[in-house]
Specification:
With about 240 residues, the chain is of the alpha/beta class. The chain is built from 7 helices and 15 strands. The strands form 4 sheets. The protein has a 5-stranded parallel beta sheet with strand order 2-1-3-4-5, sandwiched between helices. A 5-stranded antiparallel beta sheet has the order 10-9-8-12-11. The protein has a 3-stranded antiparallel beta sheet with strand order 13-14-15, with no helix packed on it. About 35% of the residues are buried. α1 packs across α5 and α2 packs parallel to α3. It is elongated and about 65 Å long. A hairpin with a 4-residue loop joins β9 and β10.
């Protein structure tokens, strides 16, 4: 199901950054997104009144021209818009007023990728986020795929290294888990490692992840691994031009 998200911000570069993060989130987690952009509250309200805008989520800049985000939100509610509203702001000064319009949260500028993802996970339906079942002794764990940094196989144990710093150990085989994940963001970069390319921040001798861990790249076939990551990176970068 396509999710429709509206961004209303009078600063083009801020819309650009947030739009890129939204597109990357949906590319990583599955699902489709349509993004509508507005540079003023007046233009957004005009389209809502004419029936051109229907959103699952609205991002509103607080400080905009003649009609600020808070006043825009009030008018949206008066028009019957029930979609969650998230305010974009450099300061949470409007915290008390936000209760009046039933705001769902704040995103402090400049938008942070992890904070944006957290907002989306909270407000959009969970069917956008894929989970896998991992057998841990006598019970099962069900981690979200997008929160896995990488999987490491050592002897007969596979460790899932998670975004929050936790680890999940299982005797399931790496190949079995890879089939469950079945996500183009994951790269089998080494016989014993499966890495989530969405969390790679640098490429040196190894892949460097956002938490500082290094994941080795196999010697034989290294070029193919790097080419695959480069294609993924270029696809990610292309989202900035969308």
């Amino acid at each position: 199901m396509v999710k429709r998200i509206t961004i209303c911000d009078d600063v083009e570069v801020e819309r650009f950054v947030l739009k890129r993060q939204l597109k990357m989130y949906f590319q990583t987690n599955g699902g489709e997104v349509e993004i509508q952009e507005y540079e003023s509250g007046e233009s957004l309200l005009a389209d809502v009144e004419d029936g051109y805008v229907w959103s699952d989520l609205i991002f509103l800049d607080i400080y905009m021209g003649d009609l600020n985000g808070m006043d825009t939100a009030r008018k949206l509610r008066d028009l019957g818009v029930e979609a969650p509203i998230v305010f974009l702001t450099a300061s949470p000064d409007f915290a008390l007023e936000s209760y009046e319009v039933e705001a769902s949260g704040y995103l402090l500028k400049p938008a942070d990728e992890e904070q944006t993802a957290a907002i989306l996970r909270k407000l959009l339906k969970p069917d956008l986020r894929k989970r896998i079942s991992v057998k841990c002794r006598r019970q099962y764990r069900y981690p979200f795929v997008d929160e896995i940094l990488y999987l490491e196989s050592d002897r007969h144990v596979v460790t899932l290294h998670m975004l929050d710093g936790s680890e999940i150990e299982t005797t399931q085989k790496l190949g079995e888990l890879e089939k469950q994940i079945k996500d183009s963001s994951f790269l089998h970069c080494h016989q014993s490692y499966l890495v989530n390319m969405a969390h790679i921040v640098d490429v040196q001798e190894d892949f460097v992840l956002r938490n500082g861990d290094c994941v080795p790249i196999r010697v034989r076939g290294r070029k193919d691994v790097l080419d695959t990551y480069n294609e993924y990176f270029e696809k990610y970068s292309a989202l900035t031009d969308a």
